[in-house]
Amino acid sequence: MVPRRLIAALALVAAPLVAAAASLDASIGKRLFERNWVSAPSSTKSDDGLGPLYDAPSCASCHAQRAPAELDETTVPPGVVVRLGNAKGTGDPVYGHQLQTRAIAGQTPEANPDITWAAKGTQRVAAIKLYSQGYGPLAADTKLALRRAPSVAGVGFLAQIPENEIVKRAEQNIGNRDGVSGKPAWLMENGRRVLGRFGWKATQPDLTAQISMAFSNDIGLSTAAHPDPWGDCTVTETACRRGPHGAEKGAVEVPPALVAMIADYLNELPEPKAAALPPQGAAIFASVGCTACHATLADAKGAPVAAYTDLLLHQMGPGLNDGIREGAAAPGEWRTAPLRNVAATLRMGGLLHDARARNVAEAVAWHDGEAASARAHFEALTPADKAALIGFVSRL
After folding, report:
1. Cα–Cα distances in angstroms (integers) from residue 132 to residues 57, 145, 348, in the given order
2. pLDDT higher for 195 or 23?
3. Rounded mean pLDDT of the chain?
4. N or C: more exposed end of the chain, with fewer CB within 10 A?
5. What are 161-186's pLDDT values in tens digits?
6. Which of 52-66, 214-228, 372-386 is predicted with the least confidence, judged by mean pLDDT?
């Protein structure tokens, strides 16, 4: 049950937004997305529950990233987390699925990660070293990898693409001679098969699931989908599991109604307005084979969703294989990343799942596996055509 005082307070703050054509629930969801949670117990019960171990105090602190000029490259920047896992799809037995770099008073953060961007030819790749590990060594097969928070602009449009539209796209790939053979990310949820479409490896079927997972892994807050109030803390981290939390007995810290309001807010976010896109760049983008994966699908009414993704999993080769299996995705498989808000992403950091690519050309150079043919065609372009394609993608 949602505290009435919380809803009333958020509604008053959100009231001016309603005039801007947003629904009341979406306006309250925006405030929930932006709010900083605090550790329990606090004077405002509905605000507490942070941690005990966590990476961020709010949703916005990850998705409202700062420009790289303000950051020390050796630290994990805002909006980036350290994922833990292995080829079997399990987390580290002690540290779980995600490194928790912050802690409430009286608790010990899991570790302090240090990032070194090592040169790999003309490109770069992140090497992660952990200092001040609070709970002993990692398992021998645990891999570490960075994950950046993607733009949420227009994310709701991905939810409007019918399942059969995505599956049909996969079926069309069968027998292709271009090497592209993307597969749907089928997941099991409460005994039924659902299609994953959100997250770098399409591990979540809808926005509600994605939000609930983020509350658990990133902020340490419980939801109906992830009812443990200690978030990602494992049974080995006993102090974390005994730590304070904000859930009433038999309840969760973030009730379903609040999760739904945040989903409403994300669903109503408009698509980012791209700069003027030169038609030549779009034509070259298609001619080299980029649209084999970065496709424009249709919503239930047949209207195009220009997110430039087929929402399928693709094998991207050894360079992008971080050794971590997630959901239906093998270690080297990734959901086709939507190419929306690329211009803003470039200003705030880098492209690809870990921000390793500093520009579009570097991102393309990492494409291998099913994308090897498109990369080869890109590399064979004349300088003028290559610049046109890069200009097109950079303005999305």
Report:
1. 21, 18, 28
2. 195
3. 90
4. N
5. 999 999 999 998 776 767 899 999 99
6. 52-66
User: Residues 146-180, buried b or exposed e (16+ Cβ, 10 A)?
Assistant: bbbbbbbbbbbbbbebeeebbbebbeebeeeeebb
| pLDDT at residue 17 is higher than 70 | no
83 in Cβ contact with 98 (< 8 Å): yes
Q: Give me the sign of the Cα torsion angle 171, 174, 179, 183.
A: positive
Residue owning tokens 């001040």: 132
Distance CA 105, CA 49 (A): 13
User: What DSSP character marks residue 47?
Assistant: G
Q: What six digits make up the tokens of 76? A: 């994990």
Residue-level pLDDT at 54? 97
**Strands 313-315, 304-305: pairing kind:** unpaired
Is the pLDDT at 252 greater than 70? The verdict is yes
**Judging by beta carbons within 10 Å of its beta carbon (0-12, 13-18, 19+), is residue 105 exposed, middle or buried?**
exposed
Residue 234 has a CB neighbour count (10 Å cut-off) of: 17
Dihedral sign from CA coordinates of 389, 202, 251, 243: negative
Exposure pattern of 271-283 as b/e (b: 16+ CB <10 Å)?
Answer: eeeeeeeeeebbe
Mean pLDDT of 279-299: 95
How far is CA 364 from each of CA 29, 123, 183, 310, 340, rounded to the nearest angstrom? Answer: 36, 11, 21, 17, 16
CA dihedral 241, 246, 250, 254 (to 10 degrees): -110
**Which residue ranges form the domains of the chain, and what is each CATH number?**
156-186+270-394 (1.10.760)
Going by C-beta distance under 8 Å and a sequence separation of 6 or more, which residues neighbour residue 346?
359, 360, 394
- Percent above pLDDT 90 for the chain: 74
The whole-angstrom separation of Cα 210 and Cα 263 is: 9
205 prior amide bond cis, ω within 30: no
